[in-house]
Each structure stands twice: as structure tokens, then as C-alpha cells.
Amino acid sequence: MKKISKLWRQIFFVGLIALTFLITGCSSSGDTPFWFLPEPEDEIVRMTLLQTTDMHDTVSGVGSFNDYTPGSTGDDTVQGGWARLAAKINQVKIDRLLSGALVLLVDSGDYNMGTAYDMLWNTDPAPFRFINTMGYDLITLGNHEFDYGPKKLALMINRARASTGGFSIPIIATNTVFDGIAGTDDDDLQALSGSVIINDYYVKTYSNGLKVGVIGLMGKTADAYAPNAPPVTFKSDYENADVKAFIQGKVDALRNTEGVHVVIALSHSGVIDPNGTPSGDDIKLAENITGIDIIASGHEHRMTNTVIPIVNGSHTSYIICAGANGTNLAQLDFRVNMTQKRLDEAPTLTNHTINDTILGNVLINSMVQNMNDTINAILALLPPPLNTSLETIVATSSLALDDPGSAREFGLGNLLADSVRYVGTEASIPTIGAFANGVIRGTFQENQQIAFADLFAIVPLGITTDDTQDPLLPGYPLLKVYLNGNEVRDLCKFDATIMAYQLLFPQYIAYFSSISGLKCTYTGTTVNDARAYAWDDYTCSGPTTSIPTGTTPLYPVVIDKYTMDMLLTPSIQNLLTALGISLQPKLSGGTVIDASNLMEARLDRDTGTPGVQEYYAWSAALKFFTDPGGLNGTIPVSPYNLSERRLVEE
After folding, report:
1. Same domain, 357 and 492
2. pLDDT per residue as tens digits for the range 397-425
3. Range of the domain at 59
4. How far apart are the first and last CA of the chain?
5. Which residues of 493-523 are buried (b: 16+ CB within 10 A; e: fewer)?
6. Is the model's pTM score more than 0.85?
7. pLDDT (tens digit, 9 = 90+) per residue, 358-393?
8. In whole angstroms, what is the distance from residue 355 CA to residue 345 CA?
9. Tally of structural domains, the chain
């Protein structure tokens, strides 16, 4: 009789709950209506974890911006898109609630940095609006949240809290450490901690008494890609005894003091080769910390096809990852034994591909249209050629340009290196452009009509530290630094070394730099010759002249600030020393660059105006793509099909 009455209760309310989800998105998953909760006397509780991660502000999906049609199905090839993702989240939540399961909706970090929607960071940040509207239960911080620096990250969170709807989703940051010194850049972020909105850990209590304990972590590899985080630091080395004791203490506190039934880690740490031989920081987390039931992994952008079980003593941790860019929703179904406070059986994973088969959520789609209008209004106020719109076609690509995901010369990398060199070249002086793999975030298709939004999504990362710049324009400033002939060869040697050892040390692939204005021949890790293209040969198609060894002259090198920040970190400096590589970028007068004078090297896009008007990778690419002296609206097949190689193995 109890089962029959329960069924009628579900039938009675299904129309109401479905209508609520359609119109308003969904409320917090913890506010589960009583009629869908498992019977209180049940020992076994069914639960579903829904995870997104590394969404990177891909509001309008991955693919051609102008092709995205969330209001219809069957007419585009764009993957993801937040309106479609929202619709799938709502559908799965309704299905699971109707089945009697509890639902927890989470994100594992890096929801910022990736598209032109980053321009809203200082007004009404897009990812926080989406996360709040969709009723996520909990999120954590990724390394790209710290691209803004802790002060601007705090500003962004506070802007979101003050915006329409008022962002209120708990951010779990267990191994984030503030310096505790008044007057430093992490003060505002620290003020948000201690249960204001940033939490050390979190206990989610459902109406039937189930307690879910959640920690949020930043892994060692992700930590290394957060050069702007200081003075914030992270206890991120899971093999370090002190770090192990710290995190284990948090897990033990959840289990023993808080009395939780299950522990979940939102971990921006990552799994490498998850569907082959899994490795990476989240594997180390599971191997070194006992008591974590589920690790919802992020950072590496690799989707798990099946659950990864890691046995640690008598405990098993289960790892999943939704992938990246909102192109997949991970659904993990499991059963909790409330009496024994453990999982009753191994979880099952379902991955939901987000594509054109899904009709987008009406509310989220309307929200996105308003965002588009706001961004276009911002762009309209900029000077040429920046006064464009998201939809405006800025170039046509005559060939497919992919990011290979490995350390090797490739057309898209060369194109972007050419673009930064184009805006920073010095007349009559050979100038070099260098563009690191780690800041390239997308691809172009053959014959693609490239909208400004598509261009921006290729090189979207960063924000300036100069508060005199336009606060709505994201991007790492471009720098012009100087290297001598010996160092130019060492720049090539660094590339050759990364290529040679990338299978053993894949974490360094992001540091491989595509080059412009320079041709290097090498054998193994030995550089045989370095030659310069003419200063006005912007596509590196003509003859070259040898660059002599020695400490003079100095050659200009255009590079972005993020790459320079990484180059100056102790870990990379130690690596270079171990490799016998000397790279000491200098200002034009020969002064060696460090953190104190780095901003003096910025490239100025308008020398006729007082102060510095910064160039960013996206604004340099826009100028190169559209300028009559550059590509004039067409990306040619040659040399970007590598008909003329710049890194030549002998």
C-alpha cells in the first residue's frame, strides 16, 4: 500500500514540478520536495551526482558562434551551449527525483576564462549568473579563476553577489591558504571565507537526514598554472606528508565530527589518460587520502567514459570527470548505506552529450541574448579595429587549423605567433613572436567564416593588473622583451627539449612555443642554427639571415604576460637551469626583467596617447586578420599548412 500511495503522490505533482523547472530553471538541489524523498526508514538511499567542470565561459558552445541555434534542433554542429546544458540538467534532475533519488549538482572549477563573455567579469559575471540560476549546490575554484588575481576574483564574486538574483552558491576551497597579512591582495577574498560564501568544507543535509560532506581542492599541476594566485597559496602536493595530514584531517572531521554518510571531493586536480592507464593528481589524491568516496575531477579536460576505482586500504574512491566546455554532463548514480556510512555498491556513470539534439532552455537562452547585447554595447565604444560585434565576420579560414594537443609545430600556433609579431615588429630589426600552447583554446575549420566571438575564443585568457586599463577588456597584456643570440637559440632548445620528452613529461607541453620571425634547425635537443626572417615578412615565407651567437645585439621578442609569468616561476627557472638553458628576458635597455619591472615591457597599441594602451592576444589577432597590410580578411593555405617549416629537424 505504501508503494501505491507513493506512486500517486509522484503522479499528482509531476506536472507542477516539470512546469517549475521549465519556467525558472531549477532551485537548489537540496530543496527536494518531501514527496520525492526516500522513505525515512530506508537504510539505503539512492543519490545522483551531476557534474560539470572546466566550462570556461563557453556560453554559446564550442563551434562557430553564428551557427549556434539553441532554439531549434537538427541544424548546427555546435557542441555544448549553456541553454542546452541547462535543459539537460533539468531533464535529468526531474527523472532522478521522480525515481526517488536525491540529487547534488556541482562544478569542479575553471568556469571562467574562455570566450568573449569574459568581458562581463566586472559587471555581471556570466558563469556565476548561470550557476546561480541553475541552482548548483556547490562549486570549487580552478586555476583560471585566479587568472584575475585574488583581488579581482573577490571583486568578481562580489559583483555576482550584488547582481540580479544575487549569487549565493557555496564555493568550497579546502586547501586554499590566505597569507593572513593585512593590506595584501588576498584580503578581499579572505573576507569572503569562513562561511560567508567561501567554505573550508561543507555539509549538505537532506530532509531525510542524509549528510553529504564536500571538500574542494586545487591540485599540484593546476597550482603550477596559477601564477597570479599569490599571496594565495595551496596545499596541493598530495604526496607531501604535511599536505596529506591536512587533507586527511578535513576528511576525518567530516566523517567523525560532522557525522556525514558520504564524502565527495570537488577536485580541480585532474586525471591523465582516464580511459587508458589513469594517472595524474586525482589518482594521487585517492591513493594518499582515505575516506573520500567520490572525486569529481577537473582541470585536465579529459572525460571519463567509466568510473575509475582507486583502492586505498579498505576504502575505495571513485573518480569521474565530465570533460570540458559544457559539452558533457556527467551523471553518477550511487546508493548510500546510511547505517554503515558508506557506499552500498560501486557507482554507475552516464555521460550526456550536449549538442543540437537538445532544445535549449528558454530562460537561459533569453539570459544569453541579453549578455550578447551587453557585450556588443561594450565593443561599440572601442576604437577601431576593436569596435566590432560578436557576430561580425573578421576573416575566412582557407584551411582547417587545429590545436594538436602535443608539442610540435602547427599552423594555428604559427598564425598566432605571426599576429603578435605583426603588432610588435620593429622596422629594419628582426623581431620574433612566441606563442605558448597553453594559451591556445580552440580551432578554426576549413572555409569557416570567423566571427569576432570565434577569434576571441581562440585566445581568451587573462586580465591585466593595471587598473588604469579598460576594466571590461580581458586578456593578458602583450610584452616586448629582448633576447641575445645565445638566448634565441636557447628558446629553440627549450622547444626541442619539450618535443623530445613530451611523452615522459606531458605537463610541459603547455610551455611549447610556436615561433614567428625565426627558423631553427635542430637534432634531438641540440640547436644547429637559428635564422631570422625579414622584419616585414609577417608570414615567414621569404629568405632568412643567420642570427649570430653572443650577447649582442638584442632581438625583440613579442610574448604575452602569462607566458612570462610562468617563465619567471621558481619551478620553471629550476627546470631551465637543469637543462642548461639560459633565458633572461630584458627591457630594451638591457635590464633583466623580473616581477618588479615586468609591466614596463608592455606593448603600446597607441603611442600617440599618454600612458600605455595595452595589446592583448585577441586584439593583436584581430588587427592582423583584418589589416590590409596583414591578412586582409583571409587566412591563406600557405604557409599555415606548414609548407614552410620554422622548426626543422635534421
Report:
1. no
2. 999 999 888 999 999 999 999 999 999 99
3. 2-28+51-364
4. 80
5. bbbbbbbeebeeebebbbbbbbbbbbbbbbe
6. yes
7. 999 999 999 999 999 999 999 999 988 899 999 999
8. 32
9. 2
